[in-house]
Amino acid sequence: MRSQTRSRQERAASRGSADTVPIHLYGLRRGTVTVMTLISGAFAAFILAPVLWLVINATKTQANVYGTPGFWFARPFHLFQNLSALGRNVSGAGIYLQWLGNTLLYAGSAAVGATVLSAMAGYGFARFRFRGANGLFYLVMSTLLVPITSVALPLFLVYAKVGLVNSVWGMILPSMVSPVGIYLMRTYIDASVPRDLIDAARMDGASETRIFLRIVLPLTVPGLVTVLLLTVVAVWNNYFLPLIIFSRNGLYPLTVGLSSLSHAAETGSKAELVPVLIAGGLVTILPLILLFLFLEKYFRGGALQGSTTG
User: Degrees (nearest 5) of the Cα angle 152, 154, 158?
Assistant: First the structure.
């Protein structure tokens, strides 16, 4: 009986050790872990507080936005009225839902294009040897050091010459070029696609297109999703580029559209624009949150693979 009890205790201890890692194995004291947990909690509160403020104040009238505590609800509950106003031109600056559709088009098209181009360029830099490869790669990376404000005027003049002002392609085409995506895909392919596997496929007679589509892309799904997510966020939050190329409010993305709505709320004589603006800000961040939650497992898988490769 004692031997059976002891064996059960040993099995329970082994299961517990497999599920949890003692703190001392990380080299951290319990007090240090507590302090780091508190710091992480404070950082999470700092990040989530604006989102909570949007959720609460999107349910208020304009009088309650200014006359009640910002982090507590008030009556009447005005959320659905504020959301319905997003489908109307309540400010004279445009319709929010149209701006949302434009942003989905710009971000989706640019993200798909940037992911494909970054995968092709990253594969070329990682697995092909040609003269000037390193110099060309460094040239691509150097574009990260150029601020957009310094090329705003030349970019507008070029767009005016080729007819891309007030054009959807004027927003999509430059957003498809992602130096960060090229760097990430080159690094990821170096780490996850063995050269021997590609050489074996070539010896079997596979074409370069077949190798790229059937071998490289399936092995780099987490990297592709990372580039896709980063590009969507970058285009979704892009304000300066659409500001200089669009003069018609029907082509505005959310960033420029909400800016014009904010200006109308500050200077216009129409009431109830502030809660509509807040509701628009809340709806603006929801697609990005949902996209991240949907792609999080691929994003996390890519990060974990990069941390354990070597």
Answer: 115
Judge contact between 272 and 85, C-beta under 8 A. yes
The mean pLDDT values, 10 residues at a time, for the chain of 310 residues are 53 51 60 87 92 92 88 90 89 88 95 95 89 89 83 84 90 91 92 89 89 90 91 92 90 92 75 86 92 79 46
| CA–CA separation, 231 and 285 (whole Å) | 15
Q: Cβ atoms within 10 A of the Cβ of 2, count?
A: 6
* Residues 6+ positions from 149 with CB-CB distance below 8 Å: 240
- Alpha carbon 3 to its chain's center: 57
C-alpha pair distances (Å), 70 with each of 19, 64, 74, 264: 43, 9, 10, 22
Per-residue model confidence (pLDDT) at position 18: 47
Q: What is the DSSP string of the chain?
A: -HHHHHHHHHHHHHHHHHH---GGGGT--HHHHHHHHHHHHHHHHHHHHHHHHHHHHTTS-HHHHHHS-TTS--SS--HHHHHHHTTS-SSSS--HHHHHHHHHHHHHHHHHHHHHHHHHHHHHHHH---TTHHHHHHHHHHGGGS-GGGGHHHHHHHHHHHT-TT-HHHHHHHHT--HHHHHHHHHHHHHHS-HHHHHHHHHTT--HHHHIIIIIHHHTHHHHHHHHHHHHHHHHT--HHHHHH--SGGG--HHHHHHHHHHHHHH-S-SSHHHHHHHHHHHHHHHHHHHHHHHHHHHHHHHHHHHH--
Task: Please identify which residue in the block is written with the tokens 């299961």.
Answer: 15
